Each structure stands twice: as structure tokens, then as C-alpha cells.
């Protein structure tokens, strides 16, 4: 099954920053306390929450401090080959060569 994503990388990074900030606040952590727990500088954390820009290493440190590292570990998990259509199915699909209108 083919899926389409209609988000830009910038939109995704901002959404991740917003969720990280919400998680920090839900855990009742200040920016300083999260910076201390994660080993990420306060300036980097503030910039991340404001813009969504951060290095992968710093993002993973924040994720670990917020208890969300497992989600990143599964990010590029291999696709189950049984969920993909077989070559026979793909070859049997009728491919249109002209539109109707």
C-alpha cells in the first residue's frame, strides 16, 4: 500500500518540538532541569522548542530524558515482506495507458 505524506520536513520538526515541549511540561520539568537531565545545553533546548532545529544526537538525548527513545529506535524498522504485494499481483494489475476524458 502506498501512502502519501503531505508534511514538509520543517513542519515535522516543528511538530516534534511541540510534542517534546508538551511532554516536558506534562512531566513538570523546566527547560533547565531537562537540559541538566539530558546533557543538552539550555540554549540548544530553547532553540529546539522555538524552531524545531536540533542535531540528531541532541534530539536522542532529549528523547531518552523524556522516556521516548524507544520510538526513535523503531523509526526505520525493516518492512514486513508479507505486507508487500507479490510480483504476481503487481504484474496482473491492469495499467491504464490513456485517460477517459
Strand percentage lies at under 5%
CATH-derived architecture of the domain at 9-76 = Orthogonal Bundle
Q: Would you state the CATH class of the domain at 9-76?
A: Mainly Alpha
Total helices: the number is: 6
Unreliable spans: none
- Euclidean distance between termini CA atoms: 27 Å
- Biggest beta-sheet profile: none
Topology, element by element:
Blueprint lengths: L8 H18 L4 H8 L3 H10 L4 H10 L3 H5 L13 H6 L9
Explain this structure.
By secondary structure, the protein is mainly alpha-helical. The chain has a domain at 9-76: lambda repressor-like DNA-binding domains (434 Repressor (Amino-terminal Domain)). The protein contains six helices and no strands. It has helices at residues 9-26, 31-38, 42-51, 56-65, 69-73, 87-92. The longest helix is centred in the first third of the chain and has 18 residues, at 9-26. The model has no long low-confidence stretch (mean pLDDT 86).
